Amino acid sequence: MENVIHNIENLNWSAIAEEMHKHGYAVIPNLLTDLQCDLLKDGYNDSRLFRKTVVMERHRFGLGAYKYFDYPLPELIQTIRSQLYPHLAVIANAWFRALKVDKSFSMKHEDLLTDCRLKGQEQATVLILKYSQGGFNTLHQDLYGAVYFPIQVVLMLNEPEVDFLGGEFVLTQQIPRAQSKAIVLKPKKGDLVLFATNFRPEKGRLGYFRVNMKHGVSEVTAGERHALGIIFHDAEK
User: Fold this and answer.
1) CATH code, 215
2) Going edge to edge, which strands form the sheet with 65-69?
3) 82 φψ region: left (φ > 0), alpha (ψ -120 to 50), beta (else)
4) Among 17, 60, 221, 234, which is most buried by a count of CB atoms within 10 Å?
5) Is the pTM of this model over 0.90?
6) What distance lies between CA 168 and its chain's CA centroid?
């Protein structure tokens, strides 16, 4: 775990915050080693780790499957989640101040989870997603209840152009009274993508306004694609 903690703590968080403020997303290369990615990916087949499996086509969410981890989370995932959170809370608080949202986030992740429990949100939301040829994920937001954190994470566990083709990570931004803007990212194995859960601020002529965001995955045209999604709030039962 030491290398993950070191990697996170030694990131240029000022530059990352600037990217998040400008675009609502940031790509951090090489957060995890190939071995760590493979261990996480192999865990997909261990049913003891998960509380729920969702077959996406049954719900018209796309084509593929994802599994929600149960508590306690595996040590590597818990470490990533807890180490990232305070840095992201600083960004989240800046966003809410800009938008005049009457909410601030503690620097302790456990305080957010306590707020979740008080609203009946007690189930883990960290998940692994798997897509085979033809798989995709429709545009969506991961909210899960009244309590939410406005930034989330995805970690790529396969190497694009080697393990799979297609399967780009897609973001859309909806500016009021304008057409949506699409952003297509191709993170490599071990890369981390930070992005807005549901909205981010943008400065206009009369002050800040909300830019609504959704995310999804384009069609995988060959191979298999695995990704780890980390949401910082919990879900209702």
Assistant:
1) 2.60.120.620
2) 25-28, 192-196, 151-156, 225-230, 127-131, 65-69, 50-55
3) alpha
4) 234
5) yes
6) 14
